[in-house]
Amino acid sequence: MSEASVERTLGQILGELKGIDDRLKRADDSRAVVHRRLDEVSERLSHVEGEVEATKKTVNDMKPVTDDMAQLRTQAAGAGTLGRWLIRIGIGVVTLASWIVAGYTWLTGRPPP
């Protein structure tokens, strides 16, 4: 082999080594970015966990109030049903009384005393 050929081959090898070195540096930079992002995600996740715990506490504090409201709604629905039945019974009593008065008036020919 001639000296020019050896130098050219050596230049190619050096160029390839430089390319490999550049790729390794970019890979290192890329890994550093990935690690930084993982650290950021980890930090945000810890903040989210703290917020979830605070939200759990708030929801647990609100649960008795929600249960009481559900119970009050049920009681109100029951009171409404009772009221409707009492009105129906009242209408029935008034109707029965009017029938009795009408029957008394029809039988005796005069209004009740």
UniProtKB/TrEMBL annotation:
<dbReference type="InterPro" id="IPR010889">
    <property type="entry name" value="DUF1515"/>
</dbReference>
<feature type="transmembrane region" description="Helical">
    <location>
        <begin position="85"/>
        <end position="107"/>
    </location>
</feature>
<protein>
    <recommendedName>
        <fullName>DUF1515 domain-containing protein</fullName>
    </recommendedName>
</protein>
<keyword id="KW-1133">Transmembrane helix</keyword>
<dbReference type="Pfam" id="PF07439">
    <property type="entry name" value="DUF1515"/>
</dbReference>
<keyword id="KW-0812">Transmembrane</keyword>
<keyword id="KW-0472">Membrane</keyword>
